[in-house]
Design brief:
By secondary structure, this protein is an alpha/beta fold. It has five helices and five strands. The chain is about 40% helix and about 20% strand. Bound molecules: ligand CA2. Ligand CA2 binds next to loops.
């Protein structure tokens, strides 16, 4: 059964514990269950991962590129967290692996501090979903089905 990979960057393991006014009250586990329900509509499985380490995200994106080429993976839903605004390495990994990525942000980064307005990832993403909370993950999976 084809899979979708949902990758989450630093501090997103804290979802649901603090700052609900910015990030909502759902935990990453809640979001994972929601993703599984949506992916099942398309006959896909979902694997949700989170890491606080930039290089681990790079490794996962490279693996994802290989899996897309073998047909076992549809694409990646990626919330790179704060690495969005800093990481040339993650951008290069997406470009190099030629993996379809939908970039997701829970909060509306454009309504926040100026340093959050730039994304190194957006230019190499297939699409970007910003500011719709956990619903953005669901929309990203639906976008991969298009
Ligand atoms: O809005 C998003 O999804 C972000 O990617 C979240 C990142 C932030 O650095 C980006 O600018 C936008 C931060 C995730 C931190 O998540 C927390 C959740 C609960 C409590 C503390 C942090």
């Amino acid at each position: 059964m084809p899979a979708v990979l949902v990758l989450n960057g630093p501090n997103l393991n804290l979802l649901g514990t603090r700052e609900p006014e910015i990030y909502g009250s759902q935990t990453l586990a809640d979001i994972g269950q929601q993703c599984e329900r949506v992916a099942a509509e398309f006959g896909w499985t979902v694997e949700v991962r989170q890491t606080n380490h930039e290089g681990v995200l790079v490794d996962w994106l490279q693996e994802a590129g290989a899996a897309v080429r073998t047909g076992s993976l549809i694409g990646v839903v990626l919330n790179p967290g704060a690495y969005t605004h800093t990481s040339v390495a993650i951008r290069d990994a997406i470009e190099g692996a030629q993996v379809p990525v939908i970039e997701v942000h829970l909060s509306n980064v454009h309504a926040r501090e100026a340093f959050r307005h730039q994304s190194y990832v957006s230019p190499v993403a297939r699409g970007v979903i910003i500011g719709l909370g956990a619903y953005g993950y669901e929309l990203a999976i639906r976008a991969l089905a298009r």
